[in-house]
Amino acid sequence: MVKEILLACVGKPSAGKSSFLNAVSDATAKVGNYPFTTIKPNYGVSYVPVECPCKKYGKESQCKPRYGRCVEGTRFVPIQMMDVAGLVPGASSGLGLGNIFLDDLRHANALVHVVDVSGTTDQNGKETAGYDPINDINWLRLEIHSWITNNLLKRWTSIVRRHVATKNNIVDTLQTQFSGYGSVASVVQKAMDKSGIKTPLETWDEETVKKVVDHFMDVRFPTIVALNKIDMPDSDKNITKIMRKYDQNKLVLTSALAENFLRKVRKQNYIKYIDGTDIVETKEDLPDSDLKPMDDKLKNRVEKVQDLVLFRYGSTGVQEVLGKAIELLGVTPVYPVKNVTTFGSPNSSKPGAFRDCILVWPGTTVREFAKILHAEIDKYYLYAETVGNIRLSEEAVICHSNNVICYKTAMAITSKISLGNDASSSNTPDNNNNSKKGKK
Asked: What pLDDT score does 37 carry?
């Protein structure tokens, strides 16, 4: 069983979550400068950039992705995205649309926290001027923390009583409580390892419970912060303060509106724009191309986006957010091929190299990946090999050094192996099933 990666755009109302979703996906989420534009979650398919082996092995011209695309050795692999109802102070107590937001959140593998760094919306998402967004990052985390902690503390006495009566270990007891947040035992184990807590569960006080929840959140809800609206007048001073206070490795400067604008103009064939870069070319730059000439008004708008965003920051930042989120999850792109010389697809009816790319969780073994690809590959498995005809152990963990894999079976697989139905859309092992240690 497999499950697609799902990233959730979260944050206060009017921070730009829906605009961000539209900027990185095929969604057409409703946007507006008033609170609670989003009531029900909006979903879309995004394309996360990963390194494609076609460039390393000189197969760029033959690289034919079944899903997504490949641009000069950068593979854009599909993943699922959603944005959920905006969070307001007190959401963990049910204020605003808090209960709706938090219930939606449990389906996500990682969070993209969209913060309005311009200071033009207050903590409730209402239009204002001069608001200081420096505390918005911790505020969202505290609401999620309170949601989980309060749910635990309300029934803590019965949890302890049942734990003592059943003589379960701590991980099993906590997993029973955390399963409602999309957790598995390995996530709880990792959180306990990070916490360093060795005392019996029946001796824990409220502060110990809060500490456990803190580490559980780090593992279960890894978060990238998108500092959005960087092209607004007051953004610079707010960015400087936030960069000094928080971990810069998890902060990305973004302009979702600029990305949406560039994508729209590209679709209308006025510009050639490469996602994740500052490269924008027009008819003036490429006179022999089929690009349409722009009038002065459109030309000025494009130049303004270049000056305020692309030339200052190198890109609109939205692709970098996706890349960092996938990096936090630790997933590995895997390329199943028919053989390790031509790199053709296991589905020989469609030619082309590296047609399929599947993102798998940390700790996935060669044999487990065979089962993900197709039940008959697992059933008739003989061995697997990677580039250079190097045989791989069944228990070898898939990593970037062995992620081009060819499977050999004991008999010809007569049924067509159509990865598109279950694996090639960046699917990963099901988070809801018990998995081996090391997986999420």
From this structure: 45
